[in-house]
Design a protein that fits this description.
Blueprint lengths: L1 H41 L3 E5 L2 E8 L10 E16 L2 E17 L3 E3 L5 E3 L6 E22 L2 E12 L5 E7 L5 E7 L6 E11 L2 E13 L5 E12 L1
Antiparallel strand pairs: 1-3, 2-3, 2-13, 3-4, 4-7, 5-6, 7-8, 7-9, 8-11, 9-10, 11-12, 12-13
Length: 235
Amino acid sequence: MALCALTASAFAQEEQKSAKDRLTEIENMADEIKEAKGSSSSDELFSVDGLSHLYVGDHIVDNNVFPGGKSHEVGLNILQFSLNPAKWLSLEIGADIKWDRFIAKGKMFELDTNGQFALSTATPPNRIKSKICAFGASAPAAVSFKFGKVGLKFGAEATYDFDRYTKIKNKFRDDNGKRAADIVNGGEIQNFRLSYFGALLFDDFGVYARYCPGTVIPGSIQVENLLSVGIYMGL
């Protein structure tokens, strides 16, 4: 009887030990699977993202028509292709849409006989704010470096503005003090232009600067060599 009891106890201990070993093995396998998934997602050689980032910035215009800090741009990434030869290095090509607003207060824009933007010679209405509005698509190409949570991005971007969305929008107060608006479709903006940009990021949030050499808006209110600075946000 003592021998049987000893044998049963040893068998129970062995079963308990085997169960613990099997549980440990399962836990180890689960950890290995998690690590494999994590490494594969971060080490993919090629990746595709949609709506990856948004940027909002001010245009710094070097003329007396547009006061500093009153004009701006907004851009939204639609699609981005990345080649990742190393954890810290990515080569990126994307497709964005972009809105530009060139704003002047106390002045009114109009179209001259050549269809170009010009300042109106008429007396402007009360409390007027006049905008030149443009909308287009852009194709940025960049090289991105990442060291932990800190990232650097440098690149060039080709932008094409669509004529049908170019317009003047005047907002003012009428003689009765009520808000009113006047929209004039058309106007000439340099449809195709090339710009260069850089960004400093921390965990997909940071600041950027963009420089567009050459003419952006031709004519009497000429805008050229445009510098823009703003905030970059990962989505």
